[in-house]
Every structure is written in structure tokens, then in C-alpha cells.
Write a structure and sequence with these properties.
heterodimer, A: 382 residues, mainly alpha, 15 helices, B: 421 residues, ABC transporter involved in vitamin B12 uptake, BtuC, 2 domains, three-stranded mixed sheet, two-stranded antiparallel sheet, 5 strands, membrane (chain B), transmembrane helix (chain B)
Chain lengths: 382, 421
């Protein structure tokens, strides 16, 4: 950003990036119509999958009703939707930020594991601290652990060019083993248990439940505010701050960014670190707010769903927020569906994957729903 | 050595890089030597006993008894290679020394873990071979698609789809039909990946991630929705080991190579065929040209799109075959997410094996060895946590990708979509 020419080039780069992130021409179509059609198409295909596995029409109808009821149908449903959405959105924000910076970080799962583990260990290590200190510090421990774990891949990429997709996959696989090992250490493991499971987070370290004055079963917790603050912060960071500009510029055109005097290596490490911190925060909020301890597999694929989330939300914080609410709703509704209609919650995984296919290949959606879009050349609405 | 005589600036730089590498190698070897000397120290009086044959074998071999002094010798040997590398190494010797050095460390480790005890070496090697199969086939699928410049993250999903189809069709109709169906479904997902990335020009990694998510969702859904109440649909007959007459009676080698099921034989044959195809036929040359420089290949009349479709589909079929191993080759029953990251390890094996079928197989054998060693370690009661050993392949892959020991170079156009002009 040393010269005005460089700055203009970068503005162009930024615009091009935004355009690419929003799928090119027809902002409205791409940002609104494609996702809506994608969700509808995925739900229809989900119904077809149910039909193919011998679920009768009545039950399919019932399961969609349950899906709606379980996601937004009651206060408890909304609470469950928000609870599921919190770690998803936090991790998704990190991944989206990485995508903006041109980094395909698949490692959110591992970063969540590390963040959750660190938060749990920190929280039970200092049971004497008051909640006002213990909660933020535990969250911070989670964020730092996630940042370090992701930063590792960032440093490797910056110094040796090792592709982050491969290194983060390997770090994911390693993190599960590290988790199991750590949970078996005498300091971490609950006394008297032989299976790997951590000590519980003390009362003061748990994120307070927001609605337990209405009904103690409502699980939505203060992590909601952490998540909302992070959405705003990442929006500011990406679109209003200098470093966010550097992230976006080096994501769009690393060469131009380098010529403009940006330190590409530093940017990679910073972007990976921030992404890891967010994923770590997601893991920490899940452990401190919902699970209250770390156990094997507590990450439950949140980091992989978050990839889908970041794609669906077009790597934009607000988009990720909305996509996260959708996925959280699907998750919560899926549990209701399993109870009410006896349809396995794994159906939600299929629907989520289909949504992403349609989002990531807009050509496909246009081919299926030609009437929803302007014709490219003629420009008239069909 | 000879690099003193080189005088151009570029060559000097190359020479100094190679010198630097030789020094790094030397230091690593010296550290390994210290590791063996101090951490894997075995009292000279103690012996490690390795059983080579079981009572059922036709030819009986005496147990291999290794005295504890062996590790001291290994440490000395490592120190010697290390010093030699540090002072005057370079060129091809660096890689060879590291390879040989690591091999020695593994031997020393086995002796240390086994000191004062006795364990079945042949059994472990046999397990190594079996565990390497899905990784090798996954790696081979990776080689086939990345050689035509399509990054294949979807191997995991293809393995899972193959495992699922093998179990389902194998239970409904029969194992052979199940095997063919698994191959066909794998091919179908390969073709789907090709369609997404070649025709719809979707990002290759996103396409792979999506296929993985989709297959995981679909197979888990059917498992809990249908299989849970219909056990008979998920109970296929397993392919038993075929003993090859005469060859299977060879001690050690026989059980490892010639008393296995068709998946082991299939993997070995496929690796051989793929190597011949890729490096000794016209089709293979064209495929590699598409991976290195699609524009040039196109100019010379190679149909880039078709080549990519064909090879990615082929890769899917190989992965489908590998997937069937999980069900038809071992337990006959499908469980949710039973591949458990093996496809990603296959991807690692491909990188480790430098995008070569034989390399991928060798890497898969190393990973399989680490895997079966980890199982054995739990039985031998060593102080090393088995998790760390299980992590070794991942860390090794990171080291290779980072180019700390030798640079692995992917096909030049890897991951880039090709737009015909």
C-alpha cells in the first residue's frame, strides 16, 4: 500500500475478490436466490432419499413438520438451534476468513479439539477463580490453543510452501490422538475412571445459561454473545481494518499484494492464527457451555460442518451467521425428527452436503431451476 | 566430493543447497544415534526373541534371537553414517542415508520393545500387509487423479462408498457381485467428481469435501435407518485368504505375501499395472502430459477433458475396490464412518510416495507397519504411548510436504481447472 497505484490495484483486487466470493454477476440472484433454491432442492432430494429407503409419504410429511417444529417451533427449539449454531458459526467465521485470505483451512476440527481441550484443562486447573475471570481466561486459553495449532500449518505454509490442505488434514488426524492421550493423563483424567475423560469444568467456569430462569432445560448459553461479538468483530476486521484488507488482497492476488509491500508470509500466519483462534473459541464455548468436560470425539464433526457453513455463507460474516442459524436449525430439527418420525438424524448430513453442492456449483442450480434466474445474455426475466 | 569443481553461480547454489541438505541429514542421523544409544538402550545380557514361524507352518525356522548389544551397534552405525553425511554427503546419498537410518532405528526400536520377551514377527508383517491395502489403494487412486491434475480429497468418501456398497450388495446377492458393485459405485463417484470439477469447474477441494460429506451422510443414514432393523442386509460373506500353492510355504514371505485375500493380491497387481501404464504406455504419457501441461497436451491433440474424466473415474474404481476391503475383506459388516480417515492417509501415502504408484505402496506399507506396531506395543507394555506411534505417519507426511527431507513435487498443473480455448 505504499503507492497510490498499488492501492488502486488492490482496490480492484478487493472488488474482484468480493465478486468472486459472491459468485460474480447478479449479486441478488447469487446471494439470495441460489441459496434458497439450494435449500429447497436439498430438502426435496432428502425426501427422495427417505422414499428410497422405504419411509412412507405420511412419515416424510411428519418428519418435515418435526424438522420445522424442532428448529423454530418452540422456545426450547429456538434455544437448541442457537446452542448448536454457536460453535458452528465461530468455527465457520475462522474458515471464512481463511478462504478470504486464499487459505483452504480444513483443520477447524483439530483446532476445535485443541481449543476445547485447553479450555477444559484451564478451567479445572483454577477452580478458585471467580467466574468473571475464569470464563474469559478459559475461552482465551481455547482460542490461543486453536491459534497455535493452526499457526503451525500457517508457519509451514509461509516458510516452506507446504500446502495447508494436507497439513491441516494431518493435524486433524493427529489432534484426535493427542486428545485421547491427553485425556488419559492423571492430571486431566477424572479420578477413578479408566476411560479417557477429563475432569469437569467447575461451576464458575461454565458459560451461564441465558434462559434457565424460564426453564432449567433451555441450554442456550452466554457463548451466544461471544459468537455475536465475533461476527461483528470479524466483519470489522475483514472490511474495515488494514489487516483485513491485506488478508483479502493477498487472497485474491498474492503477487499484487507482495508488490504493494505486504508481507505474504506474515499474512498467512496471521490469517491461519486468527482462523484457529476462532475455531478454538468454538471448541472452548462448546466445552464450557454445553459439554462441561472434554471427552473423545467431543468435536463431533463441527469443524467439517463449518467448512460447509463458510461456503454457504460466501465467507461473509453475516452470511456465515445466517448459514449457521440454518445449520443449527437443521441439527436441532433433525433431533426432533428422529424422535417424532423415527427418521435418522443422519439425513441432515445428506441435506447439508446437497446444499453445498448446489451452492458451490451455481451452474447446477441454474440448470435445475432455469425459471428463477435472468437469462445471462438476453437479460430478461424468464 | 565433485561439487567443488562446479563454477557457475546457479550450480553453486544448487551445490550449496545439496550441502545444506546433507548437513541437515547428518545432524538428524546423529540425533537418531543418540536416541538409540540413550532411549532405546538394552542391557547387553538381555535378548529379544522374534518368532518367525508358527507350529502350523510346513517349514520350521528357529527363532531369531537378537542380543541386546545390537542396539549399541546400530547407534554406532548411525553415528558413522551421520558423520559421513555431515562431512562429505550430498546428492542421492542423503535420501538413502535417511531411509537406511530410519530403518535401523525401527529395528533397534523393535529389539528394545521386545527385550526379554518374544513376539511373532511374521504375524506382524502379515498384519502390516493387510493394513496397508486400503491405504495403498487410496494412494493409488490419488496418483491416478493427481497425475491428470485433479486433486482428489474425495478418496475418503469413495472408500466409504465402496465399503458400504460392498456390504449391501454382497449381503443381498453375493460377495463377488458386491465387489463389482463397490468398484462401480467408486467409479460413479469418481465420475461425479470429474463432472463437478471439469464440467462445472467447481473448486476441486470443495468438490472433494462435498463428496465426502455426502457419502458420509448417505451411508450413515442408511445404516441407522435401514440396516439397524434389517441386519440381514448388512451381513456379507467375507473373501477368505487364498493360499497360493508352494509359494505360501516359503517361511516368512509365504504368510506375508501368498496367504492373503484377493484385496492384497489385487492391490499389488494394480500397483504394477498402474506403474506400467503410467510410465511405459502412450496413454500414460498422455495422462501425465495433461497433469503437467494441459495446454501443451491439448495443442498436440490430447483431449484434456476426456483424459481427466477417464482417469478420475478409474481412480474412483480403484478407491471403490479399496473400500470393499473394509467390509468384504475383513468383517463383512458396514459401520458408520468405518474408513475413519484411511482415505486421507492414502492421500498422505501418495505424497510420501511422490505421486508414483510404487512409492504410494511403499508409503502405505510403512503406515501399515506403524499401525500394526502400535497394536503390538499395547501388548508389549512399552512406556511409549501408542497414540504417538499412531501419529507418526501424519507427522512424517507433514515433514515430507514441508520438504524438510527432500522435496516432493506434485504434477505441475495439479489442482488447476483447464479451460479450453
Amino acid at each position: 500500500m505504499s503507492t497510490s497505484i498499488g492501492k488502486r490495484e488492490l482496490d480492484d483486487a478487493g472488488r474482484a475478490l468480493l465478486q468472486r466470493a459472491s459468485g460474480g454477476r447478479g449479486q441478488f440472484e447469487d446471494l439470495v436466490i441460489v441459496p434458497i433454491f439450494a435449500v429447497i432442492a436439498a430438502l426435496v432430494l432428502g425426501a427422495l432419499v427417505m422414499l428410497a429407503t422405504g419411509v412412507d409419504i405420511g412419515t416424510i410429511g411428519k418428519s418435515f413438520v418435526a424438522l420445522g417444529k424442532g428448529s423454530v417451533g418452540s422456545l426450547n427449539a429456538i434455544s437448541e438451534t442457537l446452542t448448536s449454531a454457536i460453535p458452528l458459526i465461530l468455527a465457520g467465521l475462522g474458515l471464512g476468513l481463511g478462504f478470504r485470505a486464499g487459505l483452504f483451512n480444513i483443520g477447524a476440527e483439530g483446532q476445535i479439539v485443541m481449543g476445547g481441550l485447553a479450555a477444559a484443562i484451564f478451567a479445572f486447573s483454577f477452580p478458585g477463580l471467580p467466574a468473571i475471570l475464569l470464563i474469559p481466561l478459559s475461552l482465551l486459553a481455547g482460542a490461543i490453543a486453536g491459534a497455535i495449532y493452526a499457526g503451525f500449518a500457517g508457519v509451514l505454509k509461509a516458510t516452506t510452501g507446504a500446502h495447508e490442505v494436507i497439513t491441516t488434514i494431518m493435524l486433524n488426524l493427529s489432534s484426535f490422538l493427542i486428545l485421547i492421550w491427553a485425556l488419559k493423563q492423571p492430571y486431566v483424567q477424572v479420578a477413578g475412571r479408566s476411560d479417557p475423560i477429563s475432569k469437569s469444568v467447575p461451576e464458575a467456569g461454565q458459560l451461564p445459561r441465558l434462559l434457565d430462569w424460564i426453564d432449567p432445560n433451555l441450554r442456550v448459553h452466554a457463548g451466544l454473545f461471544v459468537m455475536l461479538i465475533m461476527v461483528a468483530f470479524i466483519w470489522w476486521l475483514l472490511f474495515r481494518s488494514k489487516i483485513g484488507f491485506a488478508f483479502r488482497a493477498s487472497g485474491e492476488n498474492p503477487d499484487a499484494a507482495r508488490y504493494a509491500g505486504m508481507k505474504s508470509g506474515l499474512i498467512i500466519v496471521a490469517a491461519m492464527g486468527t482462523a484457529g483462534a476462532l475455531a478454538g473459541l468454538g471448541g472452548a464455548s462448546q466445552v464450557l457451555g454445553v459439554l462441561e468436560r472434554a471427552s473423545p470425539g467431543f468435536s463431533a464433526g463441527i469443524g467439517f460442518d463449518a467448512i460447509a457453513l463458510a461456503l454457504l455463507g460466501r465467507s461473509h460474516p453475516v452470511g456465515i451467521l445466517l448459514a449457521g442459524l440454518l445449520f443449527g436449525g437443521l441439527e436441532a430439527g433433525g433431533r426432533q425428527m428422529q424422535v417424532d418420525a423415527g427418521v435418522s438424524i443422519d439425513l441432515i448430513g445428506i441435506i447439508q452436503a446437497l446444499i453445498i453442492v448446489f451452492i458451490a456449483a451455481p451452474l447446477l442450480v441454474r440448470a435445475i431451476f432455469p425459471w428463477g434466474f435472468r437469462k445471462d445474455k438476453e437479460g430478461g426475466a424468464a | 566430493m565433485s561439487n567443488v569443481t562446479i563454477n557457475t553461480a546457479g550450480a553453486e547454489q544448487v551445490a550449496s543447497t545439496s550441502d545444506r541438505r546433507a548437513r541437515i541429514t547428518g545432524v538428524i542421523l546423529l540425533l537418531l544415534s543418540a536416541l538409540v544409544l540413550f532411549a532405546l538402550d538394552v542391557a547387553p545380557g538381555e535378548v529379544a526373541t522374534f518368532r518367525l514361524t508358527t507350529v502350523r507352518d510346513a517349514v520350521q525356522l528357529p527363532d531369531l534371537v537378537v542380543p541386546g548389544g545390537f542396539n549399541t551397534i546400530v547407534a554406532a552405525l548411525l553415528a558413522f553414517i551421520g558423520v559421513r553425511q555431515f562431512l562429505r554427503g550430498g546428492g542421492k546419498w542423503s535420501t538413502l542415508s535417511i531411509g537406511g537410518g530410519l530403518f535401523l532405528v525401527v529395528l533397534a526400536f523393535l529389539v528394545w520393545a521386545d527385550a526379554g520377551k518374544s513376539f511373532n514377527l511374521t504375524g506382524m508383517l502379515q498384519a502390516t500387509m493387510v493394513r496397508a491395502v486400503p491405504i495403498a489403494l487410496g494412494g493409488l487412486a490419488g496418483v491416478l487423479s493427481e497425475r491428470v491434475a485433479v486433486v482428489n480429497i474425495a478418496i475418503e468418501g469413495m472408500l466409504l462408498a465402496g465399503a458400504f456398497t460392498g456390504a449391501l450388495v454382497g449381503s443381498l446377492i453375493g460377495s463377488w457381485v458386491g465387489l463389482f458393485a463397490a468398484v462401480a459405485i467408486g467409479g460413479m463417484f469418481g465420475m461425479m467428481l470429474a463432472a463437478l470439477v471439469v464440467t462445472f469447474r467447481m473448486d476441486q477441494i470443495i468438490a472433494g469435501v462435498v463428496i465426502n460429506l455426502f457419502v458420509l451422510g448417505l451411508t450413515s443414514y442408511v445404516t441407522s435407518q435401514v440396516f439397524a432393523s434389517n441386519r440381514w442386509m448388512n451381513n456379507a460373506e467375507v473373501f477368505r485368504a487364498w493360499k497360493i500353492p508352494l509359494l505360501s510355504d516359503i517361511p516368512v514371505l509365504g504368510p506375508v505375501l501368498f496367504q492373503q485375500n484377493i484385496f492384497v493380491y489385487g492391490a499389488l497387481i494394480l500397483v504394477g499395472v498402474a506403474t506400467y501404464y503410467l510410465f511405459h504406455t502412450k496413454g500414460g504419457l498422455r495422462a501425465r502430459a495433461v497433469g503437467e501441461h494441459p495446454r501443451a497436451a491439448d495443442t498436440l491433440g490430447v483431449d484434456v477433458y476426456w483424459t481427466r474424466y477417464f482417469h478420475v473415474t478409474l481412480a474412483g474404481m480403484v478407491a471403490g475396490f479399496g473400500g470393499a476391503w473394509f467390509t468384504l475383506g475383513s468383517v463383512g459388516r458396514f459401520d458408520e464412518n468405518m474408513t475413519n480417515g484411511k482415505g486421507f492417509i492414502g492421500l498422505a501415502a501418495m505424497i510420501f510416495g511422490r505421486w508414483h504408484p510404487v512409492g504410494a505402496l511403499s508409503a502405505a506399507l510403512i503406515f501399515g507397519f506403524a499401525d500394526s506396531l502400535q497394536q503390538k506395543l499395547a501388548l508389549l507394555n512399552t512406556p511409549i504411548p501408542s497414540e504417538f506411534l499412531a501419529m507418526a505417519p501424519y507427522i512424517a507426511t507433514i515433514i515430507v510436504v514441508a520438504g524438510l527431507i527432500g522435496k516432493a513435487r506434485p504434477p505441475a498443473a495439479d489442482g488447476q481447472p483447464y479451460v479450453k480455448e
